[in-house]
Structure formats: structure tokens, C-alpha cells
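Supplementary Note 2. Why include the ligand at all?

Several targets in our set were suspected to adopt different conformations when bound, so apo predictions alone were not considered sufficient. For every target with a known small-molecule partner we therefore ran a joint prediction. The input for adenosine-5'-diphosphate is given below.
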Amino acid sequence: MLKMHNIRKSYRTDTIETHALRDFSLEVNEGEFVSVTGPSGSGKTTFLNIAGLLETPTGGEYRLDGEDVSNLNDHQRSRLRNEKIGFIFQGFNLIPDLNLFDNIDVPLRYRGFNGKERKKRIEKVLEQVGLSARAKHLPAQLSGGQQQRVAIARALAGEPRFLLADEPTGNLDSLMARQVMELLEFINEWGTTIVMVTHDPDLARRAHRNIQIVDGQVSDLHRTTAPAAAE
Ligand code: ADP
Ligand code: ADP
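The joint prediction is reproduced in C-alpha cell form.
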């Protein structure tokens, strides 16, 4: 479970101080699929970056699976991040001259898995995202939706407990966006907790719960609890 209490994040540039998050409190339970919406500049990406241990808060408490992770050093954060967290982004971030198999292999090599374990994981996640037949293709040979599915496979290969998605459908047409959303719903049903930032109100509604961030805070007015979208 992910639990933030009165998180603050400030950025100082010269004389200007920006409060990206203030008194930000939120709990995400094991197995939830939470969507995050809010105006541009409201703090959504800052929240995801802190949740994903890419950045540290200026103040407040962040607990991940009960462990206080508010003040970890870079090394401790990257170890926990590798162990528990997967990321997907609007821009896929695939390496253009590596085929799908090798793209998924990059973070697994970095983490020191042996060849047999890496191959097993890569074949499993390619099957999960429905792209087994494309393992030797380059990213440019795929549609945008397929490229995002590769990026999802790469995140899943680390077997993360939490999947954090920043506008994962932002570059996709509505059909491909729906397909990516359906894949995320399967992944959630298989047991991964998902937090997804999106501008798309239809996709936001399909999550178990939608959180609105306004001016760096969770807006209680917009807090709704919708039933799970899956039949
Ligand atoms: P959103 O994702 O909702 O668009 P962000 O979390 O990116 O919002 O940004 C929240 C606020 O923090 C904005 O005012 C933004 O300009 C500011 N901000 C974000 N990152 C930085 C940074 N590295 N340096 C200075 N200001 C930043
Ligand atoms: P569909 O019926 O739309 O094809 P499935 O439920 O069969 O979707 O799942 C699609 C892919 O997900 C398949 O490749 C399957 O191997 C994989 N899959 C299904 N259930 C699980 C699970 N519990 N854990 C891991 N992978 C799964």
C-alpha cells in the first residue's frame, strides 16, 4: 500500500519558490486502480515522481508497504524502485534501434538477471501484451498502441507491485487508447496496483477511483468512488 501524509514539494529557482504539492494526503490500497486528473501544472507528475521514488518530498511522510521512504538516499530509492515499481510514459521511451525483445531486456540486464531468467520473463510479458509474434520487430514497425504495449511489457518484466502511468494514452487515437486501457485493466486484475494520470475523462472514470489534483492538493470536492469497470 502507498500512503502519503501532508506531503510538500517545493521547487526554488532564483527567487521564485513553486509549491508543486502542499498538504498532499492520499492512500492507494493493494489491488486498486486509481486515476489521477487535474489541470495542467496542478502537481500530477510531481505526485507520480514522488510516488515512484524518482524524487523526494520537501516535507511530509510517504510510506510504501509500511516502510517510511520519505528520506531515503538515491541508492536506497533506486533499489526499492527496481523491486516494486514499474513506469509507463506518454512517449513510450523505447530504444529505436533495438527490437522488442532487446528493448524489454535492457532493464533486466541492468538488474543482473541471468540469460535464462531474462528470456523467460520477456517471453511471458510479450505474450501478456499480445506481441509474441513481433519479438524481432523494431519499434518503428509497430503502431503507437503496439509500442505502448511494448513499454508496458518492459515495465511488467520487472514484476512490479505498483505500475505508475503518466498519460499512457496521450499520444494514441481513441481506439488504441481503449486497447491500452483494456490491457491495464487486465494487469490490474492479475494483481498489480495501478496509478494512472490521464486527461481523458472516459478513461479516468473506468478506474476504481478518480483523484483530482488542484493546486497541489487532492480536491475532496471531486473525489468520487465509481464501481470497477470490468465485467
Ligand atoms: P502537472 O503534471 O499537473 O502538469 P507538475 O507536477 O508537472 O504538474 O508541476 C507542478 C508545478 O511544479 C508547476 O507549477 C510546475 O511548473 C512546477 N515544477 C515541476 N517541476 C519543476 C522543476 N523541476 N523545477 C521547477 N518547477 C517545477
Ligand atoms: P483474452 O481473453 O482477451 O485473450 P486473457 O485473459 O486470455 O485475455 O489474457 C491475455 C494474456 O494474458 C494471455 O497471453 C495470458 O497468458 C495472460 N494471462 C492471463 N491471465 C494471467 C494471469 N493470471 N497472470 C499472468 N498472465 C495472465
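The first strand starts at residue 2 and ends at 13. The chain has one domain: 2-220. Comparable summaries for the other entries are listed in the accompanying table.
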